[in-house]
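Page 47, continued from p. 46.
Same chain as before, 175 aa.
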Amino acid sequence: MIRRLQQGDRDAFATLYGWYGVLIYRQAIVPRLPTPELAEDCLRDTFRTALEKIGTFRLENRSIFFWLRRIAVNKAMDVHRRHKRDRALAEAVKADGAPVASTPRPDRGLEVEDTKRLVDLSLSRLNPRYAKALRLRLIEDRSRDECAAAMGVTVGNFDVILHRATKAFRQAYPP
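Result:
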């Protein structure tokens, strides 16, 4: 089955989805996501990523389920964080009571520029690899997969680099 998948057999992929789709959905995605719509989107993205990355899967005396589950958990955590951040922002705007399209403070541009300058200065003082990881993930808002590919590492290695980078940045900011 794995060889057929790696050779691009769509029927094999349909079989794989039939075997593990519901299981991945129930065990890895639903416990981490607040709404069925988000969970269904995450399941779709999980199997899309699996199809794209099936060439990297190595059969080592274990089921492909665990590989699929790891993809699903990572996707679900990313979606949950994004959803939580968006919801918190919407609630903050609602609680503030100010109209969303209010006129910005006259000094807001200066404040933003000053913050950008401090962030750039702090990033310039970090290990270049850490600075690149932070720029890719947080400033450019790329996915973990895209960041790992851009840095030429696995997603797991990227996660470690990003963790260390955030720790280093906390110590460097503000300069």
